[in-house]
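hey can u check if this looks right to u? its 363 residues, i copy pasted from the old doc so theres a chance i mangled smth
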Amino acid sequence: MLKNIIKIVSLSIILFTLTGCNSNYMSLNDMAIVSSIIIDKKDDQYITHIEIYKEEKSENKSKKESYFVKGKAKHIKDAIDNASLLVGKNLYMVHLNAIILSKSAIDNNMEIVFNYLSRRIQLNSNYYILVTDNVENLLKSKDEDNPILGEKIKNLTEFSSNNGAIYKYDFLEKLNNYLNPRIDVVLNKINTKDKNIKIHEAYYFNENKIKGTLNQEEVKLTSLFKNDNNIFLDFDIDNKYYILKIDESNTKYDLKNGITIKINAIANLDSVHSDYDLTKKSTITKMNKHAEISLERRYKDLFNKLKNSKSDILTINDYIYRIKGYQKYDFFNENINIEINLTISKKGLMQNTIGGYTNGQEK
């Protein structure tokens, strides 16, 4: 089954590349441009909400808006087709920004959803795929500043991911993870309240099933593990906070005797409590050591959480298999040692402007 999906995806990409945007010889005026698709499931029926761009023109002005059409059927394809009948035009999905799935649509149904999406050669591969707890609230979350829901979700996703707060991925990356039997999938979660949207948590899976939620700190830890940068982490010593911004990181494995994972990182101080005396090297050294110990503890907690759920979103088993060619050690059954080697950079703005130290010597 999975091999067939891979073949379909490969063929789809080739066909899309060869045909290009003008392959069906149809004017954009004859097509409905889709910004987002919301897929829900209730009582064994898929319900799709398709967001269509609408441009309102008046004298010397043009205003972008959108509207939703709704379809319902036993299969996703038929639900989308039924919705498109209400538009009276062919759907144009090259500019698709996001596909949002309800929990009921994706939980225990991932194979069905990914199988359908992988077969749609008219879709671009750069849209984001997310999960929401409340479809009705999401449908009401457009506002004057963000009249297009798909664009709003895309902009929020890219802004948050560029600041290390959530995962950044497109559909093809998620599909590749899904097709790999040694990797479990993570999908960003949309939280809605009134018309506000927050994307700062994620659902993690084991095979087809949602196993739990990662909070924002856990999402940042997984991003750091994958060597994403520009991540902001909070720490405190005796209720005096400080925030580090991770500028560089590198994760290495030692498989000689069990599994030891070493994360080397360089960070800058982003903000600190006023009681910290940054003119002393001992203060920076204390912060550095405290952050290392704190991160090691946090990773151990995260590992235990994922082990209990049998979810390897960190791709540890896949890495071991690719290096060793066999599964001598296993993420779920081995005691994993984690070592953090953190360096608070001397080039940080705060040390240079307040005093700090140079070449290891206090000023």
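The two ends are 65 Å apart (CA to CA).
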